[in-house]
């Protein structure tokens, strides 16, 4: 889909129906900046706006795959101050994320939750065609472990963002994104997969 700005109005609508929701957020970036290029609504700010509007149950927000450059000396302080669990990419290197997702399921409980997946959460070796690639990211297998690990949660919506088709000459990033989105649809409540 488009850039991560699109998640903000979606979560406004979701919260209108369900109240504040938990969030499984896969990304290279926290997207909790206050302003970017002088704007308060930008693809690096949506989750700060969501916090300010009370759209998220901050005790049930998990950000996975976070890494990369920052404009601040402690780039994760805002998230942690809100009660988010921030799982840095380096905590995921060379291991299965099945145990992590068991913890995430416990944290989410049976209340409504939303999955937001930025394709740049994956290493650019697998998904190079995105606006803000960052090295040393997750693998496609880990992405599947995260998504499949959401099965059984009360998922009320999901998105996959930041695929940049104009740069995707090979189509590999779009193929990976489409497959991950299909897997997200398969973990929605009531979907029979077998």
Automatic annotation (TrEMBL):
One GO BP: putrescine biosynthetic process from arginine, via agmatine
Organism: Pandion haliaetus
Cleaved signal peptide residues: none
Domain of life, per lineage: Eukaryota
InterPro entries: Ureohydrolase, Ureohydrolase_dom_sf
An annotated Gene Ontology molecular function: metal ion binding
Family indicated by similarity: Belongs to the arginase family.
Annotated protein name in UniProt: SPEB protein
Keyword terms: Hydrolase, Metal-binding
């Amino acid at each position: 889909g488009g850039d991560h700005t699109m998640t903000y109005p979606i979560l406004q609508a979701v919260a209108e129906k369900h109240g504040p929701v938990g969030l499984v957020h896969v990304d290279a970036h926290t997207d909790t900046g206050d302003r970017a290029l002088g704007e308060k609504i930008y693809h690096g700010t949506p989750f700060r706006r969501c916090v300010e509007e009370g759209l998220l149950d901050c005790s049930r927000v998990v950000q996975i795959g976070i890494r990369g450059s920052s404009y601040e000396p402690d780039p994760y302080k805002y998230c942690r101050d809100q009660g988010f669990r921030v799982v840095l990419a380096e905590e995921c290197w060379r291991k299965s994320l099945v145990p992590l997702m068991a913890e995430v399921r416990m944290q989410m409980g049976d209340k409504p939750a939303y999955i937001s997946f930025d394709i740049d959460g994956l290493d650019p070796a697998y998904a190079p065609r995105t606006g803000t690639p960052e090295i040393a990211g997750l693998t496609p297998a880990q992405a599947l472990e995260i998504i499949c690990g959401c099965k059984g949660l009360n998922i009320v919506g999901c998105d996959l963002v930041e695929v940049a088709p104009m740069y995707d000459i090979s189509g590999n990033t779009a193929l990976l994104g489409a497959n991950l989105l299909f897997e997200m649809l398969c973990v929605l409540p009531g979907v029979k997969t077998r």
